[in-house]
Specification:
Structural class: alpha/beta
Shape: globular
Distance between the termini: 31 Å
Number of strands: 13
Largest sheet: 9 strands, mixed
Number of helices: 6
C-alpha cells in the first residue's frame, strides 16, 4: 500500500499486545469487548492530539490562579457504524464522557460486498462538531466511505475515522475517496479474502462483541 498523508498506522507495543489477544479465537466475548475499548482509548489519545476545539479557562490552584486550556463543551461527536462500531464508543467516552453519540446503520450486501444504508440518527448541531467515525474493521472500505459521505451531506466539516484492524484495500479506498478525512488504524493486515474478510484479521467483530456467532 502506498503512503497517504491522511493515514496513520499505529506502531505501539501496548496496542500490538492487545491486538494479539484480540485475534485469538479463544478470547472470550467479555475480554474481546474490553480489549476493543482499551485499544480505542489508546488510539483516541493520539487521534485527538490535534484538531480538538479548546477554550481558555481560569483555574485557581492552592497557590495561584492560572490559565488552562480545556476541551470546548459539546465539541465532539462519536458516530459508530452499526453494529460493531458500538464496541468502540465507551473507549472514546473514557476520555470524552460528554461526547454526543450518533448512529449510522449499514449492512453489507453479501453478493456485491457493498454497503446498504438502513439507519441514520445524529446529534443536533453535528455539523459544527469534530466527528469521530468508528468501526473496528476497515475491510473493503465501502461502509466507511458511505458513512463519511452521509456526514458530509449533513454539513459535517471536521471528520476523523478510527478502525482497530484495516486491510490495505479498504484503507486506500477511504484515503482516496476522502482525502480531507484523517484515517487512524491500529494495525494494518495483509489483505482481504474472496469474501471480503480481512486476513489474518480476527473474524467478525460484531459477532465476537455481542456473542452472535
Amino acid at each position: 500500500m502506498k503512503n497517504y498523508e491522511n493515514v496513520t498506522i499505529f506502531n505501539h507495543p501496548l496496542i500490538s499486545h492487545k491486538v494479539a489477544i484480540l485475534r485469538d479465537e479463544k478470547t472470550s466475548m467479555k475480554e474481546f469487548r474490553e480489549l476493543v475499548e482499551e485499544i480505542t482509548t489508546l488510539m483516541t489519545f493520539e487521534c485527538l492530539r490535534e484538531g480538538v476545539p479548546t477554550v481558555a479557562k481560569e483555574v485557581k490552584t492552592p497557590l495561584e490562579t492560572c490559565t488552562q486550556y480545556v476541551v470546548k463543551d459539546n465539541a465532539i461527536a462519536i458516530v459508530p457504524i452499526l453494529r460493531a462500531g458500538l464496541g468502540m464508543v465507551n473507549g472514546v467516552h473514557v476520555l470524552f464522557p460528554s461526547a454526543r453519540v450518533g448512529h449510522i446503520g449499514l449492512y453489507r450486501n453479501e453478493e456485491t460486498l457493498e454497503p446498504c444504508e438502513y439507519y441514520c440518527k445524529l446529534p443536533e448541531g453535528i455539523e459544527d462538531k469534530l466527528v469521530l467515525v468508528v468501526d473496528p474493521m476497515l475491510a473493503t472500505g465501502g461502509s466507511a466511505c458511505d458513512a463519511i459521505a452521509m456526514l458530509k451531506k449533513r454539513g459535517c466539516k471536521t471528520i476523523k475515522f478510527m478502525a482497530v484492524i484495516g486491510a490495505p484495500e479498504g484503507v486506500s479506498r477511504v484515503a482516496e475517496a476522502h482525502p480531507d478525512v484523517h484515517i487512524y488504524v491500529s494495525t494494518l493486515d495483509r489483505c482481504l479474502n474472496e469474501n471480503g474478510y480481512i486476513l489474518p484479521g480476527l473474524g467478525d467483530a460484531g459477532d465476537r462483541l455481542f456473542g452472535t456467532k
